[in-house]
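ugh ok fine here u go
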Amino acid sequence: MSLKNKEIWFKKWIVCKQTYEQISDESGYSVSTLQRYFNVMLGNAPKLTYSQNKEVSLSAD
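structure:
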């Protein structure tokens, strides 16, 4: 399975909310294989960074 295909199927699982079964039917890989690949990809997810602003604007009615 190429990295590009893994990323495409991972995106369908995360963003498009497809089930393992749906992706398994499309890809030809078993559910357990997909779960193993996706768990590795989740483990290597990038860390999100943010800058902390000291000033906050809040408007309420």
